């Protein structure tokens, strides 16, 4: 399953906020809400002060889901572990510019491995840091929180980078936004040009996950 072609606005639920004891059910539920992407937050306790999931969990989830697996690598050595995530079933891999000495080489490597490639930047990192390599990617991710935890407050200043990136990249590359997104903040980021909306707490803090997804959709329509 590949990322949907640019031109549609997609919601990518982040399962970091889901019930880890029932992940297969949670993923089936969001699939029934018509989403085509699930956002997988990978943290190594080094690049960010938290530890989440790795290839073994993704490999198990791959067996129970057809959704596009969007792996967000918040790890210090993305090049070292890229193949392990591809082998586990990730369809798209995003790494942080702050963790990559040779970003172009890693983007080429991901394409060689047959997946789509993405790059992301922390709220403090300027767009200039990725300007040269972003056009080589299939999707660029703008962080609107400091990576490491769900349910943090949205950073409006960081969101403004989306408009600048849309100018640089044109319509053919997806722009994803991640951090503090819900019905209140989704209209703003979509108005800047984001087309892939990560949401964790806004979906999984609600008993009715499907209604929560539809509330976000309704907000930016
Ligand atoms: C944070 C992660 C996000 C987070 C989103 O480092 O990259 O994907 O889980 O969660 P919310 O939507 O609750 O901010
Ligand atoms: Zn994420």
Give a quick set of tags describing it.
221 residues; alpha/beta; 9 helices; 8 strands; binds zinc ion
List the helices and strands and how they pair.
Elements: E1 10-13, H1 23-32, E2 37-43, H2 55-62, E3 68-74, H3 78-88, E4 92-96, H4 103-112, E5 116-121, E6 139-143, H5 156-159, H6 161-169, E7 174-178, H7 186-192, E8 196-199, H8 201-204, H9 209-220
Helix pairs in contact: 2-3, 7-9
The structure holds D-xylitol-5-phosphate and zinc ion.
Describe this structure in words.
The protein is α/β, with parallel strands linked by helices. 34% of the residues lie in helices and 19% in strands. The protein contains nine helices and eight strands. Strands 1-8-7-6-5-4-3-2 form an eight-stranded parallel sheet. α7 links the parallel β7 (174-178) and β8 (196-199). α7 (186-192) crosses α9. The two termini are 26 Å apart. The mean pLDDT is 97. Zinc ion binds at residues 14, 39, 41, 72, 178, 198.
Helix % is: 25-40%
Beta percentage is 15-25%
Question: Rounded to an integer, what's the Rg over CA atoms?
Answer: 16 Å
Strand order of the largest sheet: 1-8-7-6-5-4-3-2
Number of contiguous helices: 9
Q: Strand tally, please?
A: 8
Q: What overall form do the CA principal axes indicate?
A: globular
SSE arrangement, N to C: EHEHEHEHEEHHEHEHH
**Compounds present?**
D-xylitol-5-phosphate, zinc ion
Overall residue-averaged pLDDT value: 97
Q: How many strands, what sense, and barrel or not for the largest sheet?
A: 8 strands, parallel
Derived structural class = alpha/beta
Low-confidence stretches: none
First-last Cα distance: 26 Å
């Amino acid at each position: 399953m590949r990322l949907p072609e640019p031109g549609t606005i997609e919601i990518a639920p982040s399962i970091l906020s889901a019930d880890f004891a029932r992940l297969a059910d949670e993923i089936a539920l969001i699939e029934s809400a018509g989403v085509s992407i699930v956002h997988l937050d990978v943290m190594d306790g080094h690049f960010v002060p938290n530890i989440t999931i790795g290839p073994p969990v993704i490999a198990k989830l791959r067996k129970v889901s057809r959704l596009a697996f969007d792996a967000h690598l918040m790890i210090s050595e993305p090049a070292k572990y890229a193949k392990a995530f591809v082998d586990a079933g990730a369809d798209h891999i995003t790494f942080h510019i702050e963790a990559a000495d040779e970003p172009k080489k890693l983007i080429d490597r991901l394409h060689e491995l047959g997946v789509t490639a993405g790059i992301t930047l922390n709220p403090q990192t300027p767009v200039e840091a990725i300007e040269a390599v972003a056009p080589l990617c299939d999707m660029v991710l703008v962080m609107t929180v400091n990576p490491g935890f769900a349910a943090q407050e949205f950073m409006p200043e960081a969101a403004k980078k989306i408009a600048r990136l849309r100018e640089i990249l044109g319509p053919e590359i997806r722009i994803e936004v991640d951090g503090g997104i819900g019905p209140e903040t989704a209209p703003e980021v979509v108005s800047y040009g984001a087309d892939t909306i990560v949401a964790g707490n806004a979906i999984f803090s609600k008993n009715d996950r499907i209604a929560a997804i539809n509330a976000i959709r309704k907000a930016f329509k």
